[in-house]
Here is the input.
Amino acid sequence: MNLSKALRSVCAASIIGLLAFNAHALFDDNEARKAILDLRQKVDLQQQRVEAQQQRNVEDLKKANDDNAQLRRSILDLSNQLEVLRAEIARMRGQDEQLARDIAEVQRKQKDVAQGVDERLRKFEPSKVTVDGKEFVASPAEVRDFDAALATLRKGEFAPAQTAFLEFIKRYPESGYRPSALFWLGNAQYALRAYREAIINFKSVIAIAPDHVRSPESALSIANCQVELKDPKSARKTLEDLIKVYPQSEAASVAKDRLTRLK
Here is the structure.
C-alpha cells in the first residue's frame, strides 16, 4: 500500500514535471514564433524599404535620364539656334559687304559722272594756253582748230593748210592765236608761191604784234618773198629794217648774211 502510494506519488511528480516541462517548451515555442514573426516583419519592412529605395532610385534614374534627354534637346536647340544665328550674321555680313560694294560702285559712278561732266565742261570752257611764248585764254575749239591747221601744214599739205588758217582767222578774229596763225598762213602761201599774199600776212604779224617772237621771222620771210618777186631793192630795205628793229634776234644774223649776198 505504501509502495503503491509511493509509486503514485512518483508518477504524479513525473506527470507534474512533464507538464511543467511541456508548458515551458510550449512557452519557448511561442516566443520563437513571435521572434520569427518579428524578424519576418523586420525583413519585410526592410525589403519594403529596399524596394521603395530601389523604386526611388529607378524614378530618380528615370528623372535623371529625362533631365539628361531634355538637356541634350536644349543643347541641340541652342546649337541649332547658334547655327541659325551664325547664318544670319553671315547673311547680314554679306549684305553689309554687298552694301559696301554697292556704295563704292555708286561713288565710283558718281566720280566718273563728275569727271565726265568736268571733261565735257572743259570742252567748252576757255583755258590758258601758251603758244610762241605768249600766254592767253583760248576756247577748246580754238585750240583744236589751230592745232589741226598746223598739223596739216607740217604734213606738207600747203593748200589745205592755207584754207584751214584762213578759216581760223575768219572764225576767231580776236584770238590770241592770230599772230601765229598769220605767220603760218604766210608760210603756207610762200610754199604755194603766193608771194604777194604771203607778204601781206607777214606784215600783219609785225603790225599787230611787233614784239611777238614770230615778228623777226616774218620780216625775214617778207625779204625772201621780195627776192622771189625779183625785187632786191625792197628785199635789202626789209633786211636793213629787220637788223635795226630786232638786232638781237636770230633772224637779224641771217639778214646780215643775206645783205652780203644781195650786194
About this structure: The domain at 127-262 is CATH 1.25.40.10 (Serine Threonine Protein Phosphatase 5, Tetratricopeptide repeat). The chain has two domains: 1-123, 127-262.
